[in-house]
Each structure stands twice: as structure tokens, then as C-alpha cells.
Amino acid sequence: MNKALIIISHGSRSQDAVNAFNQIVELVRAKGGFDQVAGAAMEHNEPTIPQAIAQVTETGVQEIIFAPYFLYEGIHIKEDIPHMLNEIAPDYPDVTFKLAKPLGPESVLADILFERALAVK
């Protein structure tokens, strides 16, 4: 099955934040496992979520996993993104949309936060 991953960020007016997000997308792409990996932003940046969907479906993708690059299950995760995907899905009747969970409270994130705090001089 031709499968794509779209990593969703909130988006930012900061070019440094955009660059950091693009680095994450590249790191995930390098891991393999998907026919395509793309980044998308909810606001401020392109591609938008609809633009990213249009891009990855040009090659016959049958399934898209949407992975939010968010820490918590806030309103964007619980309402905004699902609503947007539900509105767009009928335009792609041959493509299955699946939404992954956000990053959440993971011990690896606690480890990184702890290490960064200890590194402050």
C-alpha cells in the first residue's frame, strides 16, 4: 500500500521555528517506512494541510497518517485538525486518513528537558 506521513505543526512567524520543524520532517523522512513524508502547518506557513494532502496524493497514495508535532491534546488536536480532515476527506474518496496522537507525556521528553536544565550554566 502506498502510504504517506504528513507531520503537522502549528506554524510560526519565526523562521528559526520553521527551520527546526523542517529538520524534524527530514529526520523522520530519513527513517524510512513511508513512501512520502511531508510537513504541513495549520497557519502562518506553507504547505498548509490541504496543500500537503494535494501534494502527496498526486502519486497515488492510498493512506495518509497525520502526525501532530504537538505536545498536548489541546483544542487543535481534539477539534480543529479532526474537523479539517473530515471536511477534506470527501475530496479524496480513495484515500484513508488516520490521525496519530500528539507527542504527549513521554519519558524521553522528560529526559531531554532534564538534560537541558542541567546543562544551563
From TrEMBL:
UniProt-listed SUPFAM superfamilies: Chelatase
Protein name in UniProt: CbiX/SirB N-terminal domain-containing protein
Domain of life the protein comes from: Bacteria
Keywords: Lyase, Metal-binding
One Pfam family per UniProt: CbiX
Species per Swiss-Prot/TrEMBL record: Dehalobacterium formicoaceticum
